[in-house]
Structures are given as C-alpha cells and as structure tokens.
Amino acid sequence: MTATGWTERYAERTRYERDPAIWEILQLTQKPNMISFAGGIPAAEFFPTERIREATERVLADGLATKALQYGPTEGYDPLRQLIAEQMHSMGVPCTIDNILITSGSQQSLDLLGKVLIDPGDGVIVEDPTYLGMLDAWRVYGAAYCVIEADEYGTDPYSLQHALASAPAKLIYLVPNFNNPTGVTTTEARRAEIVRMARQHGVCIIEDDPYGKLRYEGDDLPPLMALDAELAGPNGSDPLGHSNVIYLSTFSKTLCPGFRIGWIVASAELIRYLTDLKLNADLHTSTFAQLVVYEVAKDGFLQEHITYLRQQYRERRDLMLALIEEMFPPNVTWNRPEGGLFLWVKLPENVDAGRLLRHAADDHGVAYVPGRPFYPHGGVHNTLRLNFSYASPEKIEEGVKRLAEVVRHACEPV
Length: 414
Ligand SMILES: Cc1ncc(COP(=O)(O)O)c(C=O)c1O
What we know:
Blueprint: H1 21-29, E1 35-36, H2 49-61, H3 65-68, H4 78-90, E2 100-103, H5 106-117, E3 123-127, H6 132-139, E4 144-148, E5 150-151, E6 154-155, H7 157-166, E7 171-174, H8 188-201, E8 204-208, H9 224-232, E9 245-250, E10 262-265, H10 268-282, H11 287-297, H12 301-327, E11 333-334, E12 342-346, H13 353-364, E13 366-367, E14 369-370, E15 383-387, H14 393-410
Parallel strand pairs: 1-13, 3-4, 3-7, 7-8, 8-9
Antiparallel strand pairs: 2-10, 5-6, 9-10, 11-12, 12-15, 14-15
Bound molecules: pyridoxal-5'-phosphate (PLP).
C-alpha cells in the first residue's frame, strides 16, 4: 500500500491560513518560572473546590447518580436551564427554558452558530480587534469579516451604520461587556442605537458575554438582548420569538472553565434548530458536569461567589494598574477596564509587540499576548493584552517589574 500525506486530504473549509504565533505563545508560557499575563484564565485559587466536592457527593449519592452518569437530553438539564432562565430574567431578558440550550462552553456555542448561520462568503461584522477564538471558529465556515471601529465607549455606532449600509452582512458579533482583548464596555446609549440599527437592517447580533458578571466598578448595563426585546415586544408563547439577538454566556469565568458549560439564549425556534445540530456534534453536554454545576450554583451560591470574585479581581486589576502607572514610560498608553480579565496596552508605533514578547519571555521570564492575531485582517503590531486575574499579587508585582524593564528599553525615543 502506498503511504500518502494528509495535507491533500483535508477538507477545503479547514485550509485557511493559521497564525503559528498563538502556538508559539502557548509554548513560551509553559516554561518554568514564567510569569504569565497571557491566558484569559481565572485564578485557580478562587475555584470553590469545597462546594464542588460537596455537590459532587450529592450528585453521586442522592439518587441523582443514574441521571448524572447516563445519556441526557441534548438541550440540557432542565433545573440548570431554569436557573439560567431566572438569571436572564434578572438581567431584563424575558425567556423560558425553551429559549435556552446548554453547550460545552461558549466556544461550542460559537462553533454551532457558525455552522447554522454562516455560508462561505457571508459578511460578518466584527470589531477590530475582537475575540480570536470566534475569528478562527468562523473562518472554517467561510466568514468574510468586515471590521468596524470601537473606542473607549465601546462599539462605534457610526462605523456600524457605515458597514451596514456598504455591503450585505449576515450577522454582527459583539462582546459589549469588558471585551476580549480590549477590556472595553459599550455604553448604554450606544447599545440602544446598535440594537435599533441591526433591527432596521435585518442583520442579527450575536452578543457574547462571558465577562459581564465580573464588574468591579460602575453599574451593570442591560444586555443587547434585553434592549432588543423591548423593541420586539411579546410574541405569543415565545417571549423571544421576535428577537434579533442571540446571547451567549458561560460558567467558565464565574465558576471554573474545566466543567465546559455554557449556554445560548435565542428564540425557541432557533434553539430547536441548534439542538438538532448539537446532537450531531456531541449528543449533549456532559450530564455529570451539568448536574454538579447546578448543585454548586443553586440556592444563591453562584451570586455569592461572584461577589467574592469581584472583590478579588478588583484588587488584582488595581494593583496591576498602579504598577503600570508607576513603571511604564510616558509614550505607552493603556486603559482602565471596569471589569473582566484584561488590560489593553498600546506601544509606540515602531515597536512590534510580537517580537518584543520573545525577548520578554526568553530573557525576562514574563509573557503576554501580542495584539496582532485579534485583528481580523492583521496589520497592527504595537498592541498587547495583559491578563490580571490569573497571577497572584506577588507575581503581578514581579511580572510588571520585569515587563516594565523590557517595555522601557524598547520604547526609548529614537
Ligand atoms: C469572548 C469570549 N467568548 C467565548 C469564550 C469561550 O469561553 P468558554 O470557556 O465558555 O468556551 C471566551 C474565552 O475566553 C471569550 O473570551
């Protein structure tokens, strides 16, 4: 038999050009003694391990074991869907459990939505920069990215209006709360305008909200889905029957990512369609994980835990900001996010953050994510993302000190 290479066997849709930089970064951050501000990951020391242990014991003891260890319904475990429906209600989104599909994390939600909504060449409006995991997931389905601007007040409605008027688009992807990578939040006035425009042009919005609960200052803002529901009004038995927004969230940042549990909120019709497609992908999300998450989250524990995380992460954010303020040179700028996990830093235009990372990691033992892969069409080299949730306060102190040395040296005026 003749041995053959794999390359020519790969399906056309998977042959888009990948950025090897990401894998190189992940390798770098694994090195011993590295202080990493690279990952978008929660602090392991805040995982509610004791509560999870008790919940797991209950799930295995209380006559729930047969359910937890058996195949389950594709749409998810009803008590968990009910708990999520109540949470969505408290955020102003009218919904029932028929509007909720449990997924294996928001990353699966994105993949399913790409599969269901995107044909090759379909226009997808995204911010520049935006979440890399979405860009890669939808490239497989042939998304043609059309970029719009954002500033410190979030998505720019003028830029969106221009994009909507210039070329046909299938959908708009936004992270209105504490965006990944920029940490920026879209103001309430802009949210209202964006929702109105999208509706007017008949282009749906995918609202990705993994970070909304992690707010450290200011007031919670209504989700785009809640504002859209006000415009849509009720529709018979489906409170989201006329919704133009699809909302995603996850327990990854508020409990822990290892469970791999997220959810999609949408019209009941779309949820049924997505459920069929999810059946093909993985039958259902782990029943065991869903039951444990429900037992952990119920009776107000999730809210209590979120209050605790807000306090802990606020301290880390403030510490990182204070150190940067003290140590970074004046020709570098950064933002002050009101929540989430990231700061966004701009170096002078002649400094390449990707090249600098190699030096920072190899010679100084500190890592971050260069901004370039977050721009759908590339081109920007002088930005970087810093995560402040993962490293301990001691590591943040030492890491920013190391990073500041690298940055000061690279950013000396020529
Ligand atoms: C904007 C955004 N969407 C989706 C995800 C994926 O989350 P999950 O762990 O639920 O798959 C992330 C993870 O960092 C994210 O930042």
